[in-house]
From TrEMBL:
Gene3D superfamilies: 3.30.70.270, 3.40.1170.60, 5' to 3' exonuclease, C-terminal subdomain, DNA polymerase, Y-family, little finger domain. It comes from the Eukaryota. This is DNA polymerase eta. It comes from Triangularia setosa. Residues 588-623 form the UBZ3-type domain. Residues 48-311 form the UmuC domain.
Length: 683
């Protein structure tokens, strides 16, 4: 797999030098090398890669439609853009543009609308008239999910299997790979001295330096070192490990390109934090290696508020305490002082993060916790019939995703189904169990109708501005016998199907229940009063203070309010908190508070929530923009919904979502990466 050797010894040939007597000692011990095989996350020779597809949805459309690579193309949702390919970016077109603005900047732009479900239809499709059907269509991300899955399979098939593979799907277009064991195997094969046991039986003894003088990094972007930071020092084993990893990644990217047609960019370093920053450093179709000796210089170019988990409150606190946002300034601050001002735990964590320390695991078992399908209505809907048509779409949408999750093979199944209904500023919710043997599109639809029926019993529920259906409580399925039992519904299950055992919560009770389940910080936010007009979300920058997150007098404490979102558990507060409970964000910074709609990684539950609020506001604004094109609808929408008035230009989401590199040398238009995260979400 690894063809011409990238290692050069003193004499310019590529076999490892064999004169150990003259060699210096490495900084690394045999124990360190052995630790690679077991994915020890503190191993100093650890190698982790992050792959991110270039302008993903745009590439999917280009490949699907056979559009040449140099043609500018953007993916459209209603009147906005959600993905822009690189040729189009050279016209300064970005996610912030409307279709009209983009076409003005580049009249030749191909703008492809995403596929949609249509009220009354049972299958999503690409439709020429989708943009005008915001009222009756709902975006489908299935084409991108399917391609995402395909790419994932290519990756898994290409890499060696078993213990040598650790792949985490981090979002619809990203994966992390812990390549430590794989690289360990390759190194042992290539370097005789690494095979077998340590020479004197002492694993803590430093190894000899590798017998190579120079490494050939091919076309990789190497992050520069700071002044006097050892560019001329001989390569040590960590450089060798990263070089082997970068070869593996280059090969893998080639295979992905060949088999699927897609290009991606990658970061290769010793952990997730750095590799994620690395994959965004140079795009498209490039890979960036952050050698251990370059980490300090690499990070010192960033504002620390761009680093995961430092974008929010904690970051603000740090900025205030030290009167700076620059990593380079904070690197001067001794740990003791950080601890004094920020508390012991935070102090230590920040000290380490600024130095690129991240021991979070690449987690191949990451599984979604819930799925949600929703639609905000403009104008509101007013009848059970209308709502029922949407329930059918939601059921089909969710079921399609369940199939993708392996529900047909009985791998994992959700236990509960929930329906949320918004009328004015009241949200009503009902939930019930999903009978074990009765999981198909039709049964989800039946259960959903039943929940709706329960809600209608409360009377006075129309007009309705938002409906959302979700399934949650995933558990491992039971394998095997699905005989006649599969078709019989008995006892509790039958009752469940009949009545949906609804949690009889009025909107007030629903709030109370979810408040009880919130962590303290969130509780304050919900209790805390304060005006919550949509305007505030649209004009805010920076982290919202807690009371900004309140929707006053609203039965709704959650953000599951917009057209489409998917999977991974960020829909409703119970799910949020269960997901949050899983991981100490500071221990696994990369995915601890990921927005399920746009993949932004937020620093804290608060930031995530406020970011979701921003999505909500943006959705309203988006819909408003469209509705203005339809004079009649506009009139009624404005009358019913003063809050969607006529805001122009939503601000950036309250929390920054992704770090951008300290300097971009590609000369492409300045990317505003995860900032304008709008509209779509993914799983
Ligand atoms: P990104 O990886 O953030 O962006 P990208 O792949 O389009 O571009 P890049 O080359 O800079 O990586 O998001 C992946 C896909 O997720 C993107 O193609 C469309 C979707 N998405 C949205 O729908 N809305 C958003 O706001 C963002 C950020 C992404
Ligand atoms: Ca991408
Ligand atoms: Ca991405």
């Amino acid at each position: 797999m690894l063809s011409s050797s990238p290692f050069r010894n003193r004499h310019g040939d590529s076999s490892p030098a064999r004169s150990p007597g003259r060699r210096k000692r490495s900084q690394f011990t045999y124990r360190h090398f052995h630790q690679m095989a077991s994915y020890n996350t503190s191993c100093p020779l650890r190698v982790v890669a992050h792959l991110d597809l270039d302008c993903f949805y745009a590439q999917v459309e280009m490949v699907r439609l056979g559009i040449p690579e140099d043609k500018p193309l953007a993916v459209q949702q209603w009147q906005g853009l959600i993905a822009v390919n690189y040729p189009a970016r050279s016209f300064n077109i970005g996610r912030h543009c409307t279709v009209t603005e983009a076409k003005r900047l580049c009249p030749g732009l191909i703008s492809q609308h995403v596929a949609t479900w249509r009220e009354g239809d049972d299958k999503w499709a690409y439709r020429d008239d989708a943009a005008e059907h915001i009222a009756t269509d709902k975006v489908s991300l299935d084409p991108y999910r399917l391609e995402s899955r395909r790419i994932m399979n290519i990756i898994k098939e290409h890499l060696p299997g078993g213990d040598l593979q650790k792949v985490e799907k981090a979002s619809i277009d990203e994966v992390f790979l812990d390549l430590s064991a794989h690289v360990h195997a390759v190194m042992a094969e290539r370097f005789e001295e690494l095979r077998g046991l340590e020479p004197y039986g002492d694993a803590n003894e430093e190894m000899l330096m590798p017998g190579v003088k120079a490494l050939d990094w091919k076309a990789d972007a190497l992050v520069d070192l700071g002044e006097g930071e050892g560019e001329f020092d001989d390569p040590d084993w960590d450089d060798v490990a990263l070089l082997v990893a970068s070869e593996i990644v280059r090969n893998l990217r080639g295979v992905i390109r060949e088999k699927s047609g897609y290009t991606c960019s990658a970061g290769v370093s010793r952990n997730k934090l750095l590799s994620k920053l690395g994959s965004a450093y140079k795009k498209p179709n490039q890979q960036t290696v952050i050698r251990n000796r370059a980490v300090r210089h690499f990070l010192s170019g960033f504002k620390f508020t761009k680093i995961k988990n430092l974008g929010g409150k904690l970051g603000e606190q740090v900025a205030e305490a030290f009167n700076t946002e620059a990593v380079s300034d904070l690197l001067e601050v001794p740990m003791e002082q950080l601890k004094m001002k920020l508390g012991n735990e935070n102090g230590v964590w920040i000290y380490e993060t600024l130095r690129g320390v991240d021991t979070s695991e690449v987690n191949s078992g990451t599984q979604i916790k819930s799925m949600l399908s929703a639609k905000s209505f403009r104008p509101d809907i007013t009848t059970v019939e209308q709502a029922t048509k949407w329930l059918r779409i939601f059921a089909a949408d969710i079921f399609a995703r369940l199939v993708e999750e392996g529900v047909l093979e009985h791998k994992r199944r959700p236990k509960t189904i929930n329906l949320h209904h918004r009328h004015g500023n009241q949200t009503r919710s009902r939930s019930g169990p999903i009978p074990a043997r009765l999981l198909n599109e039709e049964s989800l639809f039946e259960l959903a109708k039943n929940l709706l029926y329960q809600i209608t019993l409360e009377g006075n529920i129309w007009p309705c501005s938002n409906l959302s259906l979700s399934v949650a409580g995933f558990e491992e399925g039971v394998q095997g016998n699905m005989g006649i039992d599969a078709f019989l519904v008995k006892g509790d299950e039958a009752r469940a199907l009949k009545s949906s055992e609804s949690a009889r919560t009025s909107s007030k009770e629903a709030v109370d229940t979810s408040i009880r389940q919130q962590p303290a910080a969130k509780r304050r936010r919900i209790d805390g009063g304060g005006g919550g007009g949509i305007q505030r979300f649209l004009t805010k920058r920076g982290s919202a203070p807690e009371d900004d997150l309140v929707r006053k007098n609203s039965g709704e404490t959650t953000l599951g309010t917009s057209k489409t979102y998917v999977a991974s558990g960020a829909g409703w507060p119970e799910e949020l908190s269960s997901k949050e409970a899983q991981a100490d964000p500071r221990r696994s910074p990369m995915m601890a508070h990921a927005c399920s709609r746009c993949n932004a990684n937020l620093g804290s539950p608060e930031e995530l929530q406020s970011h979701l609020d921003w999505h909500f506001a943006k959705d309203l604004q988006e819909e408003e923009r469209v509705s203005q094109a339809f004079a009649n609808q506009q009139a009624s929408a404005a009358a019913n919904n003063p809050r969607v008035g006529s805001q122009k230009g939503a601000a950036a989401p309250p929390a920054s979502a992704a770090a951008s590199g300290p300097k971009k040398s590609t000369g492409r238009p300045k990317k505003k990466p995860e900032r304008g995260q709008s509209k779509l979400n993914f799983g």
